[in-house]
């Protein structure tokens, strides 16, 4: 009886490990293609040998990327860091504050208002781009940094997620103890609530940072000045010109490779907060 059971265990492990290997290969395949294709010139890319390192010219591609149009690529890079960094940080703080308020305080129409927040989760962001453009044009912020920053400061899913984290991480006793010690509500939130729910803050930050970094449709609608473009819109403009001018292909590929770096750095550097959150309730 033990031999068939042992065989079944090995088959199960092999199936699971095989599925994991296929998933890893599927996810890493585009990155490997970027790494090798970024070393090619236009002729090497069009020849279809992107996976080889023949004609290695990564340094030349980086140099041309930095020199083209007075280095506008790195201007787009700075814009994306501004949009994603400031927007994600502010959105995370707003989301956690809103989730904290929904969890801690009782007020009239609380659940109905939270239902409206949940409805906001169901509305795709692309459907809101045109109404936001009309609002921005009324206010006079179209084709400015604020046209992209203001809409990303609120994320209904972030509010929902923050309330869930607050319910799991913030005990009422800790808040009551702080109030008894004379702390005001803002001090209680900032010194106790926000610190306890930091894994949720990091989670919302990473989700929003990734969404803003990859955001394309909102900048496309709001911006017409190339100096305000984020990377997603700038690379799209270059790729549109690549059909007529193949020399744009190496610029697009090399720029796409560099565009991945902030996302990798953000996830690797902040993953310890997730690990801390996963084990927060394991020991009493």
TrEMBL record:
Q: Where in the cell is it found?
A: Cell membrane
Q: Which residues form the ABC transmembrane type-1 domain?
A: 77-269
What SUPFAM superfamilies does the database record attribute to this sequence?
MetI-like (SSF161098)
Q: Which UniProt keywords apply?
A: Cell membrane, Membrane, Transmembrane, Transmembrane helix, Transport
Task: Classify the protein's membrane topology as the record does.
Answer: Multi-pass membrane protein
- Transmembrane stretches in the record are 14-35, 81-101, 113-134, 146-171, 192-213, 248-270
Q: Which family, according to the similarity comment?
A: Belongs to the binding-protein-dependent transport system permease family.
Q: This protein is called what? A: Carbohydrate ABC transporter permease
